[in-house]
Amino acid sequence: MISASVTPLAGSAALVPAHGLGGRTDLPVDPALAAAGAAAAVAVSFIVLVKGWPRSRFADPNAGLPLPQAVTRVLDARLFVQVVRAVAAAVTVFIVAVAFLGPAETVNNLAPWALYVVFWVGLVPASLLFGPVWRLLNPLRLLHAGLCRIMEVDPEVGMRPLRPGVGMWPAAGVLLVFVWLELVYPYEAVPVLVGVLMVSYAVLTLVLALIFGQKWFIAGDGFEVYSTLVGSMAPFGRRQDGTPVLRNPLTGLSTVPATPGLSAVVAVLIGSTGFDGLSRTQLWMTSVPPDSIPLGTATLLGLVAIVAILFAGAIHLSRRSMERAGSGRSPVQALRPARFAHSLIPVALGYVVAHYFSYLLFEGQIALVLISDPFGLGWDLFGTSQQWVNYFLVSPTTIGWTQISAIVIGHILGLTVAHDRALTLFDSRDAIRTQIPIAVLMVGITLTGVLLLLAV
């Protein structure tokens, strides 16, 4: 528990990046009562959908108000894209240099904070507000284009085609490795290791992009895929013809294609936040050694697998329900996990906000302190090197209710888009029948998620 209003940066061992909740553990909310209330809210929302949502409202991919043409011209200008990617590349090179040449102590080196806090956590609000920002900023796309010109390789298709069935499976693997490093591996924040990871990932991604073309970024760059999925819920998006528009975020979410591996990506995101909550419970911390990599790995993989199996099981039960009701073969075949996996995106987002909200708010201040003296040379470039971390920017009550609200809203939105998708595939009665197992799943995950979030 932090008992002072501000905490100095130097010598604070509690500030080492590890798990998401960071900063507060004294949330004044009764876990059982909060979990029951959250589950009840999700259940009631399903009843409201059944009674008051008889037709699809998000099926039009071209819905939205076009942005001013001046804005469109800037966003689509090749020079603008190249400039922002060049800036992102320069920042990345700077962070890698700090990782190798800056202070050896994690608490005093900017690189771990830049990777695990500013980039990994900050990517979520940035994408949620402005869309798939990493697809725009991704410096690896700029480097890929340059290498393709030098090597006379077509950047679109690369050296060989990427199999259509690959989908997002490589991205799911990338994200699984990253969350394992963040949540299980005890030395993930060692500055030199951060530098090695960033360089290695860049080299591997560029090699695969040279082989398979730009499609690799869509399939295998886990961070771009992550930003794109979160960005589908942004108020800014594009129609099918590429026109930038202001739209209902749920309309954008409903346009996410039923790509192979999408379910795996969201299972990784939900399962990893579940592990984050579990690993912060008193039971885990008192019974599992902090450096127990095998047990941590097995638990993380197990939770990811459980999420995937439960979701696939809910879809299977929906199919069985349709078959028992005598529905035709075609509608039943439409019940595939990939068709409804987009409904898990707001669920995953809700857990990410719940687990990382206070982490970004508090630990994000450390990056502002370290940026003034990135190489530990006694600089004060921005006048922040003597700044202290203020852990009382918001109250514990605000944090607690923000976390619970994020989980509940995420599940309600997930139910909403799943119900809306069902209405595009089936008549109203069959749509309701297919959604009952999914609703039960959502209620169960809500109950478990809130308990893990608030358990001590």
UniProtKB/TrEMBL annotation:
The keyword Ligase does not apply. It comes from Kocuria aegyptia. Keywords: Membrane, Transmembrane, Transmembrane helix. The chain crosses the membrane at residues 32-50, 83-101, 113-134, 166-185, 191-212, 256-275, 295-317, 344-371, 391-415, 436-455. This is Fenitrothion hydrolase.
